[in-house]
Design brief:
Elements lengths: L10 E7 L4 E6 L4 E5 H6 L4 H4 L17 E7 L3 E6 L7 E3 H9 L1 H14 L8
Antiparallel strand pairs: 1-2, 2-3, 4-5, 5-6
InterPro entries: GBBH-like_N, GBBH-like_N_sf
Keywords: Iron, Metal-binding
GO molecular function: metal ion binding
């Protein structure tokens, strides 16, 4: 199956908390993460966000307050998240979600640094 590493952790629970705009994930390796929708949105695996080549991708601005409106399973290896800003083209594999959870603090700090360097804002225009 594409996107599935046999040694990968697989989610045992995926819970959307709409009020707090977070996605709670529990994996079969014991890992548990609660990831903000804004974090998931700015780190979308879509080409729109990642870009089409090497490098940091397209800096996402104005995503504070974004929420997830739907979660759709994709095979046995990923989910598609639909955000209330209309973004719905990223497929989040189990490996990528686990990585986002493990690297949350570092990735978020890097995003905030990139945003500040570009003079961008988390707040919508």
């Amino acid at each position: 199956m594409a996107g599935l590493n046999p040694d990968s952790a697989v989610p045992t629970d995926i819970i959307l908390h709409r009020v707090s705009a977070t996605l709670e994930l529990a994996f079969d390796d014991g890992a548990r993460f609660t990831l903000p929708a804004e974090y998931l949105r700015v780190h979308s695996p879509s080409a729109e966000v990642r870009g089409h080549g090497a490098g940091p991708g397209v800096l996402q601005v104005g995503k504070r307050g974004v929420n997830i409106t739907a979660i759709t399973p994709v095979g046995h290896y990923a989910i598609k998240l639909v955000f209330d800003d209309g973004h719905d083209s990223g497929l989040y594999s189990w490996d990528y979600l686990h990585q986002l959870g493990r690297e949350h603090a570092a990735r978020w700090a890097d995003y905030l640094d990139r945003l500040a360097a570009a003079g961008g804002s988390r707040d919508p225009a």
